[in-house]
Write a structure and sequence with these properties.
Blueprint (H helix, E strand, L loop, with lengths): L1 H14 L3 E2 L17 E7 L1 H14 L4 H6 L3 E10 L3 H13 L3 E8 L2 E10 L2 E11 L2 E11 L1 H13 L1
Length: 162
């Protein structure tokens, strides 16, 4: 009985860590013309990822308040796009505007653009989308959690300072 429970728990944890070559975000539905773009989608299991993220932040010398923000994250999905084009990025921005995402920050770093958008209802922020684009490579990070505007501002300021 104990082994069966252990196997079920292990399968549950592994099931949540899915890597796929198909887009895992709502914008990229099956009707969209991808024009030869290649995708890698990753659903990150937070139970396993949180300790590693906290350790890496501590090693980088981040303050404890920023590290505590990791506890507020409930789900992360990452989508990388190779051979994407500017039209795809413009369509994605239009999709976010149509779905009530607010543009909070654009940070330029070594020729890459990092864009942070949030979906806010009152003081609660349940969804944050981070987009990194450089030439034809794009990275989309969908972060779900329970954040405040102050949390997001602190995170953006920390990234801007570096």
């Amino acid at each position: 009985m104990k082994n069966t429970f252990l196997i079920i728990c292990t399968l549950f944890l592994l099931q949540s860590c899915i890597v796929s070559e198909k887009p895992n975000m709502a914008f990229f539905d099956s009707d969209y013309d991808f024009k030869g773009a290649r995708f890698v989608s990753i659903n990150v299991p937070m139970l396993l990822a949180k300790p590693y993220i906290k350790k890496a932040l501590r090693e980088d010398g981040e303050d404890e308040e920023l590290i505590k923000l990791v506890n507020k994250v409930s789900k992360i999905r990452v989508l990388t796009v190779e051979n994407g084009d500017k039209t795809m990025l413009k369509d994605y921005a239009r999709y976010l505007n149509d779905n009530n995402y607010e543009d909070w920050a654009t940070i330029k770093h070594n020729g890459d653009n990092v864009n942070v958008r949030v979906k806010q209802k009152g003081e609660a922020i349940r969804n944050m989308l981070i987009t990194v684009n450089s030439d034809k490579d794009l990275v989309f990070v969908d972060v779900k959690g329970n954040f405040t505007p102050d949390d997001i501002s602190r995170m953006i300021n920390s990234a801007s300072d570096k």
